[in-house]
Amino acid sequence: MIAPALEGMGYDLVRVRLSGDGNRRQLQVMAERHDFAAMTVEDCAAISHMVSALLDAEDPIKGSYLLEVSSPGIDRPLTRPRDFERFSGHVARIELRAAIDGRRRFRGRLLGIEDGLVRLETDGESVALPVDEIAAAKLIMTDELLAASERATPEAPREGRGGG
Q: Which long-range CB contacts under 8 A does 95-103 form with residues at least 24 apart?
């Protein structure tokens, strides 16, 4: 319900997560800009207003909750098949729903995705992990990732301190 409205505003939905219990529930909406530019406070506010209006009209979640809108950040979760291709070459941590060869957790360099299999270089070998079996995946903060993020994000103008 949220994704089409975000698309129309120039954003992609990365993740929606409802957590907590009782009166302390939180609905996290994570989004990014189509142009992959850094999310601003204004972007998050616009998304928050749209999501609030949509959820108020549709009322899909019973009871109270706190709405949090955020960007995925640098060490972001990988939630869509295209994320594994986009961030190929970077280090990620992947947890599977069920073990493969006795192992559920993997950490290594992403090699992309092909035929529904995420390829990962780990422990000196390449492994193929079924994307449908991935329970959670996220990028790991490395100097390479930080440098790539800085190259991809144009610097925002900085205000001077004044004086004179």
A: 95/134, 95/135, 95/136, 95/137, 96/129, 96/130, 96/133, 96/134, 96/135, 97/133, 97/134, 97/135, 98/133, 100/127, 100/129, 100/133
As a whole number of angstroms, the distance between CA 110 and CA 164 comes to 51
Q: Along the chain (164 residues), what's the average pLDDT of each consecutive run of 10 residues?
A: 94 94 89 91 96 90 90 92 94 96 95 95 94 96 86 49 38
81 close to 66: Cβ distance less than 8 angstroms: no
Q: Please report where in the chains the tokens 């991809």 appear, as a residue.
A: 152
pLDDT of residue 34: 92
Rounded Cα distance between 35 and 148, Å, is 15
User: What crossing angle do the helices spanning 41-58 and 2-9 adopt, rounded to 10°?
Assistant: 140
Instruction: Judge if pTM exceeds 0.85.
Output: no
- Both tokens of residue 48? 């928050």
